Automatic annotation (TrEMBL):
Superkingdom in the source lineage: Eukaryota
Pfam family membership, one: COesterase
Keyword Nuclease appears in the UniProt entry: no
Protein's UniProt name: Carboxylesterase type B domain-containing protein
Source organism per UniProt: Phlebotomus papatasi
KW Iron (keyword) present: no
UniProt KW keywords: Glycoprotein
InterPro entries per record: AB_hydrolase_fold, CarbesteraseB, Neuroligin/BSAL
Length: 109
């Protein structure tokens, strides 16, 4: 997993900045060791990352249908924002095409 998240106070991503997203901390608005003012977009990215990691741990497939049911914080945006990453498929990496999934505020391949 490559995580590129730029905070306004830094230039570039720092090692370990993906940890709060993998554990879904933006969905619960942080923890004492990870104080953060998470945005609604951060909550959406955390939901997508948490779902992929959870599905992969449960089944070996990050795309396992029917398991993408993260509990969202009630402050997390509109219905459209809450479903932005649902139905997203993480395709198998192929060395010939080098296609990878980029989870950003706007998802792209």
């Amino acid at each position: 997993m490559i995580f590129h998240h730029v905070e306004s106070s830094r230039l570039g991503s720092v090692r370990g900045e993906d940890i709060p997203y993998i554990f879904g901390l933006p969905l619960v608005l942080g923890m004492p060791n990870f104080p953060q003012n998470y945005s609604r977009q951060d909550m959406g990215v955390a939901e997508a990352v948490l779902n992929f990691v959870t599905n992969f741990c449960k089944t070996g497939d990050p795309n396992e249908a029917g398991h993408q049911q993260a509990m969202l914080h009630p402050d997390y945006g509109t219905a459209r924002e809450r479903t932005r990453y649902r139905g997203l498929t993480w395709e198998t990496y192929e060395t010939t095409t080098q296609q990878y999934l980029s989870i950003f505020y706007l998802v792209s391949f």
